[in-house]
Structure formats: C-alpha cells, structure tokens
Amino acid sequence: MNIIILQATDVGGIIPLLILLALSIAIFLILRSVVLWYLKVDKIIENQQKQIVQQQTIIDGLAGLYKSVNKPSDSEERNDNVEGV
Fold first, then answer.
1. SS3 state of residue 80
2. 46 and 31 in one domain?
C-alpha cells in the first residue's frame, strides 16, 4: 500500500495514473451507452415523454369540459337575479 502511494506522488507516476483514469472514464461511457441502447432506455424515455404530452392534452380537455358543464346557463342566472331582488 505504501509503495503505491509513493509511486503516485512521483511526477513520472502521475502521468500513467491520469492516462489510466481517462481510459477508465472512456470505457465506462462507451459501455454505458451500449447498455442503455441494449435495454432500450432511450425508447422508454421517448415513450414516457409522449405519454406525458397525451395525458396533459386529456387533462386540458377534461378541464374545459368540466368548466362548460358547470357553467351556469343564462336562464339560471336570470332566475337567480329575480329571486335575489
């Protein structure tokens, strides 16, 4: 353990360590994209976004329908005004 720490503190040992770190990150990113492609995660996210848009359209339509059904008609408003006088 002490040998690794002493080698890492050497200026000549830092460069291979940085190269190893960069290669590890690159391999991780490549494997990550392959796994996500294989599991079709991008398609799943795309479908979820479409579902959200469709649900929002349905919610907006139902809200408009609710407002139009619960809107008092003109005859009801006139009756309310006459009774209130």
1. helix
2. no
